[in-house]
Amino acid sequence: MTRYDPAARWQEVTALLPPRLREAARRLDEPGLVRAEELRLRTGRPMTAVYPHGEEPIPDAETVTAADLDLVLEIATRASVHTAQAQISSGFFTVRGGHRIGICGSGVMGEGQVRNLRNISSLAIRIAREVPGAASPVLDKLWREGRFQSTLVVSPPGGGKTTLLRDLIRRISDGDGCPALRVGVADERGELAAMREGAAQFDVGGHTDVMDGCPKEKGLLMLLRGMNPQVLAADEITAPEDCRALEVAANCGVALLCSAHGLDLEDLRTRPLYRDLLERRIFRRLVVIRRTERGRNYQVVELC
User: Fold this and answer.
1) Which of the 8 DSSP states describes residue 84?
2) Pairing of strands 183-187, 199-200
3) What is the reported pLDDT for 128?
4) Taking a C-beta distance cutoff of 8 angstroms, is the pair 265, 289 a contact?
5) CA 5/CA 212 separation, integer angstroms
6) CA-CA distance, 85 to 87, in Å (whole number)?
7) In 14-48, which positions are buried (b, 16+ CB within 10 angstroms) versus exposed (e)?
8) 0.85 cut: is pTM over it?
9) I want to staple 212 with a disulfide (CB 3.0 to 4.6 A). Which of 55, 81, 103, 187 is the partner?
10) Rounded Cα distance, 42 and 27, in Å
């Protein structure tokens, strides 16, 4: 496991850009590239970077063209856009290093579903990053009588769920400020561990086993049956199948560590998928992340 290097991550992300846009992005100063969370490319507009405080143009960046967007996808898929079509049709896909590319364009429909996207109009390249210590404000509140309590991390998109989840996995796995536990990670999109040739490119701890590239519900059950985890982790619970797998694991005595899109507890209760999880008491702690002008604020809610 190599040490996390923000400059190296920036090089990975900017390597996805066409050369004329790449040069401007790589001239960004070190404080800028360390704080940058996303690159945004919109046809007919200058390329921008998203920071915790807002979105700003990349200095001296040229106007983005439709050809630029197509070339980003060619580079990201290694000239095999068709191989990523299933992910692209969902509006995003993950590339090497755990970075996520969000896509907007014209939907190609078939049998009531989006089969592809064409006439791409904008891209959002979300930079996968580690923030060692991100879990410090909440870690000690997730235990009771020496046992980790199943925890759901909640925030709107871009709120920092994955970053917090990754650091919690690392610390629980390594016993950093808590008892060390075996952690199984169902990393469907490769964003938590960023596996490459069997090795995690992010530090997810020394007692962590990762199942990547398969649907969460299948990955969770494979880990449960094969790796004897004490904690099972997964990012962005979104489907009934995910919830069924979590219930099976909870009934086997395994603690859970997951994330979901949402504003707070009241928001989750308005949606049947999460309301059912709450009513079944699958989770014992809720971590709510809110972004403020001073950074991120963390609230831990005891559910039961």
Assistant:
1) G
2) unpaired
3) 85
4) no
5) 23
6) 5
7) bebbbeebbebbeebeeebbeebebbbbbbeebbb
8) no
9) 187
10) 20
